[in-house]
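Give me the fold.
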Amino acid sequence: MRTTPYLQQIHFEGFLRFLQVELGLTEEQIQDALKELDGPKAVVASRAYILAYDHLGRHVSQLLTARQLKAFVTQNETVLTDDEDRFFFARSLLETATLTATERAQIVTAMPEDYQPNLTRWFGSDRTNPV
């Protein structure tokens, strides 16, 4: 079931606040992560939420170590599944080149259970070498 544009906006803006509180992201870092989309206001205006979640995930993945990413995913499962578009944030956390195959596989197993089959298909079916 798709949410209404208003709920998508509320979820997105709430997620930005969450990233600021949970990870200490600044307005400038969020703006930088979304610069290709012309920033958060343009995301809302164009309803480009999937792209925005993807860009935010890539940005966050560059700020955190593999251990921190796994802890973040483990501690925030509810937030990651609060909105169906957040799957794209979760997926993009794994797309960083700095993760080894083993680290990526460990983070996949820490992801919300509903996400794991798709992430395993996306990054490979071999848990020891998912890339």
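Confidence is low (pLDDT under 50) at residues 126-131.
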